[in-house]
Amino acid sequence: MAQSWLIVGLGNPGPRYETTRHNVGQLVVDELAARRSETFRAHKTNSRTVETWLRPGGDKLILAKPNSFMNVSGGPVAALANFYSVDPGHVVVVHDELDIPFDTIKLKIGGGHGGHNGVRDVAKALATPEFPRVRVGIGRPPGRQETSDWVLDPFGAVERKTLPILVSDAADAVEQLIAEGLVAAQQKHHAPRG
């Protein structure tokens, strides 16, 4: 039986942040929408959404990008989950991850927030940390650069060469997570890349 899944790309709103490391989650949901030739539209939950399917006749996908800033993502995510009657186990949060090297993808369900304020706020708003996450590695800043500056900087020139492949692979990971479950997606996407 077909089910509904809410796929949320975390990030910050507006052109200033579109190409920053912190917005890689939104780049992934953009990729999922582009694969289906869909365009995001304003939604009353302070988000932009696309309603589509994993495959024709299959599970329903609600792709979403909150209009709020990263640290207060929880309100729009909880409002979307409520609006579409999606339980937290079917809310897939796609986000940047400092503790994973760039060009690496990790998937998990539940656990801590690892200092990620967007994930922390979503867990608080959903009243549980037990939701699937697709974590897209951005790595830690080099030298003494502040973490807050690093995540709000655009990807570097070398990273930009690989970024489209990373975003596409993360979108594949979302689709596989929904179609085949967490373990199958982990087995494929946690393997060394190359």
TrEMBL record:
Main location: cytoplasm
Keywords from the UniProt entry: Cytoplasm, Hydrolase, RNA-binding, tRNA-binding
Reaction catalysis annotation: an N-acyl-L-alpha-aminoacyl-tRNA + H2O = an N-acyl-L-amino acid + a tRNA + H(+)
Swiss-Prot/TrEMBL site (Stabilizes the basic form of H active site to accept a proton) positions: 96
Localization: Cytoplasm
Marked site: Discriminates between blocked and unblocked aminoacyl-tRNA: 12
Pfam families: Pept_tRNA_hydro
Residues the record lists as binding tRNA: 17, 69, 71, 117
EC number: 3.1.1.29
Signal peptide: none
Superkingdom field: Bacteria
GO molecular function: peptidyl-tRNA hydrolase activity
Active site annotation, chain numbering: 22 (proton acceptor)
HAMAP family: Pept_tRNA_hydro_bact (MF_00083)
Family: Belongs to the PTH family.
PANTHER family xref list: PEPTIDYL-TRNA HYDROLASE
Quaternary assembly: Monomer.
Protein name: Peptidyl-tRNA hydrolase
